[in-house]
Amino acid sequence: MAHLAIEGVSKIFGQTFAVQDFSLEVGDGELVCLLGPSGSGKSTLLRMIGGFEQPTGGSIRIDARDVTNLPPERRPTGMVFQSHALWTHMDVFNNIAFGLKLRRLAKAEIRQRVEEALALVGLVDYGRRAVTQLSGGQQQRVALARSLVLEPKILLLDEPFASLDQHLRERLREEVRDIQQRLGITTLFVTHGQDEALALADRIVVMRDGRTEQAGPPSVIYREPQTAFVAGFIGSMNFVESEIRNGVCMHPFFGFHIPVSDGPVTLAMRPEAIEVSPDGRPAIATVHRVTDFGTHKIVDIDLVDGTRLKAMAAPGEIIRAGMVVAFNCSHVFVFRDNALIHQSAGHDAATAVQPLFSA
Q: What is the 3 state secondary structure string of 215-279?
């Protein structure tokens, strides 16, 4: 196990910051996901940790040792790339053994460690297969074994499942998490998939424009987003623009008290926080579409002012397209200039966030 400390790291390409003054500490055995959209700097950061990019500024330390200027082969890191980067002229065994041969280990030790690595990733008896005969998932397992066989202190994974189908991605991420916990290896995992981050991470670092937008455990990132960007990037979120005057939200269907200064605000609500029910009163909200996911339904509702909201309903709920419904919300986040300034939850939100319409 190992401790990783990134202190004020920046990377400039031309005149553009890819990563800007980024700091992070990763504890022994922790799995941290770097999550963000394309261009947020997460892969560049990972490559700097692995030694494949040189930082413009800042330092990178592993177990208090400064590795900022060391080449990849002299760092105690192992990197798994999205593209697998396997040598097609070598069989599986020799792909995994390559790094051990460079270290001039004895043949018996190389064989033992390669066989252990193959067993670890579920590819026993695949050693003499050509890598071109393997599926995408099997090739990614070989790439993982090739990194793990070198016994790195830090494992770096750069969107390793991005090219695989959804079911295979889900299975492999569970296997990687099991292996990571079994070995207790400190791991950084880059992804732009929120589901992947929520399923894998001990801690998520949401990146935007080369900086940290928010960092924390998955449950905190989801339930307590500190910016509108994080709220919209993690999970599904409804956003409604409005204005506060004298402590009252002026939106016609979300007129409730918010103890903040006057000015524009963005209201944000998770679909699971919005409850819909059939309503016989004049049509304020109408069901546009119902999508049945088996475990739950997602209900798109259109308000008369043109606002569209997504709500969540139980699988047995009788809700159909075209139905007039009433709605209320049990939790509302309030943002201004991207920052969270207020939230209402539980009974207060459920009673306060009622559509203000005339019967």
A: EECHHHHHHCCCEHHHHHHCCCCEEEEEEEECCEECCCCCCCECCCCCEEEEEEECHHHEEEEEC
- The CATH architecture to which 4-223 belongs is 3-Layer(aba) Sandwich (3.40)
* Alpha-carbon dihedral sign for residues 167, 168, 169, 174: positive
Nearest CA to 158 out of 196, 198, 117 is that of 196
Per-residue pLDDT of 126-167, as tens digits, reads: 999 999 998 888 888 898 899 988 889 999 999 888 777 788
Check for a shared fold between 4-223 and 236-352: no
Residues ≥6 apart with Cβ < 8 Å to 350? 328, 329, 330
- Please give the mean pLDDT across all residues of the chain: 89
Q: What is the pTM of this model?
A: 0.88
How many CA atoms lie within 13 Å of 252's alpha carbon, on the beta-carbon side?
9
Residue among 75, 32, 17, 23 nearest 51 (CA): 75
pLDDT band, very low/low/confident/very high, at 348 (cuts 50, 70, 90): very low
Domain boundaries defined on the chain: 4-223, 236-352
Q: Note the CATH number of domain 236-352.
A: 2.40.50.140
